[in-house]
Amino acid sequence: MESVSAPRKETKPLLGGDVSAPEGTKMGAVPCRRALLLCNGMRYKLLQEGDIQVCVIRHPRTFLSKILTSKFLRRWEPHHLTLADNSLASATPTGYMENSVSYSAIEDVQLLSWENAPKYCLQLTIPGGTVLLQAANSYLRDQWFHSLQWKKKIYKYKKVLSNPSRWEVVLKEIRTLVDMALTSPLQDDSINQAPLEIVSKLLSENTNLTTQEHENIIVAIAPLLENNHPPPDLCEFFCKHCRERPRSMVVIEVFTPVVQRILKHNMDFGKCPRLRLFTQEYILALNELNAGMEVVKKFIQSMHGPTGHCPHPRVLPNLVAVCLAAIYSCYEEFINSRDNSPSLKEIRNGCQQPCDRKPTLPLRLLHPSPDLVSQEATLSEARLKSAVVASSEIHVEVERPSTAKPALTASAGNDSEPNLIDCLMVSPACSTMSIELGPQADRTLGCYVEILRLLSDYDDWRPSLASLLQPIPFPKEALAHEKFTKELKYVIQRFAEDPRQEVHSCLLSVRAGKDGWFQLYSPGGVACDDDGELFASMVHILMGSCYKTKKFLLSLAENKLGPCMLLALRGNQTMVEILCLMLEYNIIDNNDTQLQIISTLESTDVGKRMYEQLCDRQRELKELQRKGGPTRLTLPSKSTDADLARLLSSGSFGNLENLSLAFTNVTTGTECVCAPQFGDAGLRLLSEHLTMLQVLNLCETPVTDAGLLALSSMKSLCSLNMNSTKLSADTYEDLKAKLPNLKEVDVRYTEAW
Questions:
Q1: Residue ranges of region Disordered (predicted)?
Q2: Are 265 and 425 in contact (CB under 8 A)?
Q3: pLDDT of the residue at 350
Q4: Which of 118, 411, 428, 598 has the fewest CB atoms within 10 Å distance of its CB?
Q5: H or E stretch covering 159
Q6: Which residues contact 370 (CB under 8 A, 6 or more apart)?
Q7: Nearest CA to 726 among 664, 663, 670, 680?
Q8: Fold of 629-665+677-746
Q9: CA distance to 32, 93, 141, per residue, from 135 (Å)
Q10: What SS3 state is found at 745?
């Protein structure tokens, strides 16, 4: 008979003694020997179930050694055993395994070997008997041994830590639990997750811990977090710590590798949103440090790596997902608390807004291009259009039943949900929504927009970043917020400067009928604050690639002709080239529009030179202007006195019958040498020189009664739009009496209304 070898030396936990008692103290197992289980590098997968032979021996402890040394053991039964959370059970509860064996009833688990007996056996000591498990080979036997040991220990830790008494003892138990997980030969995700879940439950049930206890627990479980995501409840605990103690060293020393692992390996934040929230709070905690954004910048650099190409493909999309969620959260309170009229929620839901001055009529959003609105204000269209209701936030158009063309009334979105930009693309004269965020939301917004700016500086990340942002994944409130669009402009500029088509093509809309960054930052767009400089650079880069085609020019002519002419009028070479190409490729069918383009080109030296070069190729364009000039002229939106002066001084306008100065920025305070200043003085000069004018649009211009009275000499006027001017009722009555041909007039939002 072989002598029993020395038992395995294990770290003694604070739960009340080792689960393996010292040799010679249990059931007189003198003839048995426990295998020497030193760390031999073997790794096993945690068993959840498996087939094994079972034999149960009921005996008093004094007779155990005699029974075990007997050559004639009782019969063996095959069972499919399941290692549940609290017991060992059989799939066929009969025979020896009629009842499950609770882990709390197992006093000891040993590897067993004796002479003239089956090999590869485990001995489970239970009150009043022994359970023997026989495996097919030594590897399976060891796998069952380690799995049973693990299940038994985890069960006991769950029980003890579910009812803590003294926290200093609990902390020691947590450390022992972590050591057990780190030294276990079992290689399975649940080996590290189980202790984390135990600690997570412990923290969720004990919310009155001190800050120091918080930090001690975080430090204790830190080794497990190096290769494992924290469970949801633990994420909430970490978030709370980031918010309450952002300057704690735990944030830098413990949370940094955890967040780095999340960003590198997480595949879907939708399945684990609390990981995203934890990452978001961690970055905000970094921003609260003395160095602020410099620390955040270094963190982004560490995630990208020192080379020119980031080796981790999941980092960028995960960072963008965190940024988008954080930016949305900044406006969430604003969205939920709005009670103005009309609110964005009501606009989204298509709710009707009552008008306190006129009967309630159906509302719909204006066309997103203000310059097209001004161009459409002709005599024939005036009969189809009714009122434009102006609010301090957004313009909506009131429609009465008519047979207007769909092209003039339909918005870019569908009937049930307005287009993303349609809700915001309004007249330049209309003030934007007043959006004020709280101090914390404002800091959060600044931090995460700055991160987007940092991401756009990496050449290898820029294509993917542009693609992720192409659908404009921000709430409407953000697009209406001047601070947000102004800060984000840097990112759009980086896209516009990038020579790669895969990057700058993302400036265009992601699909037909949906506006993109190109429209949002173009003149008239809600985000434009630079009189079209960014728009010009975007057009320049797009024209320099494969977009130098008739299709792109046609799109510009249909949607952005006004901004193109305005910038060309100010000498922008790219826009001059665009207008020349429109003429060369016969993009513009309307003769009046062609004549206005020609006048625009001839108003600057660069335009005149390029137009002359074009005329050398197409002589008929020159002949067109010699016929007396256009009959219709629409000044581009945001035009100034100088713009008007350059345009009117560039050609013949003797045939002009229709003039629209709506939505322009011309005033009476700018010196103008070559043409009448607009405003009251401008109106007086117009009345002297444009005697054949039939249609005049003065909507939202700074004219007063003094200038409007001068219109009484323009006897050919048939249509006059004085909407939102300083017209008085007396002046209106005087004009009606002195203009016999006046048939269409718009005096809404004046004293005469």
A1: 1-20
A2: no
A3: 39
A4: 118
A5: helix 138-161
A6: 425, 426, 427, 428, 524, 562, 637, 663
A7: 680
A8: 3.80.10
A9: 18, 19, 5
A10: strand
Assign 705 to helix, strand or coil. Answer: helix
* CB-CB contact of 49 with 29 (8 Å): no
- The answer to which of 403-407, 451-455, 718-722 has the lowest mean pLDDT is 403-407
CA separation for the pair 541, 548 (Å, rounded) = 10
Q: Which residues contact 558 (CB under 8 A, 6 or more apart)?
A: none
Other Cβ atoms less than 10 A from the Cβ of 569: the count is 28
Q: Angle, nearest 10°, between helix axes 591-601 and 605-617? A: 130
CA dist., res. 284 & res. 448, Å (int): 9
Q: What percent of the chain lies above the pLDDT cut of 90?
A: 33
**Burial class of residue 533, CB neighbours in 10 A (0-12, 13-18, 19+):** middle
Under the banding of pLDDT at 50, 70 and 90, the label for residue 105 is very high
Instruction: Look up residue 350 and give its two tokens.
Output: 């298509």
Q: Look up residue 253 and give its DSSP letter.
A: I
Count the neighbouring beta carbons within 10 Å of the beta carbon of residue 383.
Answer: 13
Q: d(Cα 531, Cα 521) in Å, to the nearest integer?
A: 10
Whether residue 107 contacts residue 10, with contact meaning beta carbons closer than 8 Å, is answered with no
Helices and strands: H and E segment counts in the chain: 32, 15
Task: Provide the 10 A C-beta neighbour count for residue 672.
Answer: 22
Cα 25 from Cα 31, distance rounded (Å): 13
Q: Which helix (H) or strand (E) is 172 found in, with range?
A: helix 167-183
Q: How far apart are the first and last CA of the chain?
A: 116
Q: Could you identify the residue written with the tokens 């030594």?
A: 138
Distance CA 44, CA 253 (A): 31
Q: Indicate the pTM of the whole model.
A: 0.64
Tokens of 707: 């200038």
List the structure tokens of 170.
């609990």
As a whole number of angstroms, the distance between CA 135 and CA 120 comes to 6
Mean pLDDT of 372-383: 34
The strand pairing partners of 121, in sequence order, are: 112, 134
3-state secondary structure of 89: strand
Q: How far is the C-alpha of 664 from the C-alpha of 641, rounded, in Å?
A: 9
* 44-149 to CATH, choices 3.40.50.20, 2.30.29.30, 3.90.830.10, 3.40.50.970: 2.30.29.30
Q: Which residues of 27-54 are buried (b: 16+ CB within 10 A; e: fewer)?
A: bebebbbbbebeeeeeebebbeeeebbb
Structure tokens at 298: 């270094």
